[in-house]
TrEMBL record:
Belongs to the flavodoxin family. InterPro entries: Flavodoxin, Flavodoxin/NO_synth, Flavoprotein-like_sf. Residues 3-145 form the Flavodoxin-like domain. PANTHER family: FLAVODOXIN 1, FLAVODOXIN 2. It holds the Pfam family Flavodoxin_1. Gene3D superfamilies: 3.40.50.360. Low-potential electron donor to a number of redox enzymes. One of its GO terms (molecular function) is oxidoreductase activity, acting on NAD(P)H. Keywords: Electron transport, Flavoprotein, FMN, Transport. It comes from Weissella kandleri. SUPFAM superfamilies: Flavoproteins. The keyword DNA damage does not apply. Its cofactor is FMN. This is Flavodoxin-like domain-containing protein.
Length: 151
């Protein structure tokens, strides 16, 4: 089984989130790669190249999506994700109240327009992964693998 993690980060927090997910996927014997989402074109995604696709993006200014992920986001509904299991995680700051972690919600809504299979509910991390967030991210990765094994 193969997984691909695409991330965007300004402060390094989301790379830490991606690393937690990657470590757990690898522990579960999933061949995993991690890439900056800036360099990935959603229209070039090939279902044969990954069983699981994870995006990890931060929420920016008043609940908007990270600039690095905008092109990917806009093209995602037209991407070929037939039978690919997807999941979304990302960091935010609870200081922003209702705008906390909305990038996760925005990307999940875009993924729902594809032929992909939602593998787990999105995970929002306040700033950096603390112990409870690490546990939530590990469960998230485990759910993705379980869903991929059932398809």
């Amino acid at each position: 089984m193969r997984a691909r993690i695409l991330y965007a980060t300004l402060t390094g927090n989301n790379e830490e989130v991606a690393d937690v997910i990657m470590t757990e996927l690898q522990r579960l014997q999933v061949e995993t790669t991690k890439e900056d989402i800036t360099y990935v074109d959603a229209l070039d995604l090939d279902p044969a190249e990954q069983d699981i696709l994870v995006t990890v993006v931060y929420t920016f200014d008043l609940g908007t999506l990270a600039d690095e992920a905008l092109d990917f986001y806009e093209d995602l509904p037209d991407a070929n994700l037939n039978q690919v299991v997807y999941g979304v995680a990302g960091s935010g700051d609870v200081y922003y109240g209702d705008d906390y972690g909305t990038a996760v919600d925005l990307l999940e809504a875009q993924f729902e327009k594809t032929a992909g299979i939602k593998g787990a509910s999105g995970v929002k991390v306040n700033l950096r992964p603390d112990v409870p967030a690490v546990e939530a991210l590990q469960k998230f990765a485990q759910q993705l693998v379980q869903t991929a094994q059932k398809r």
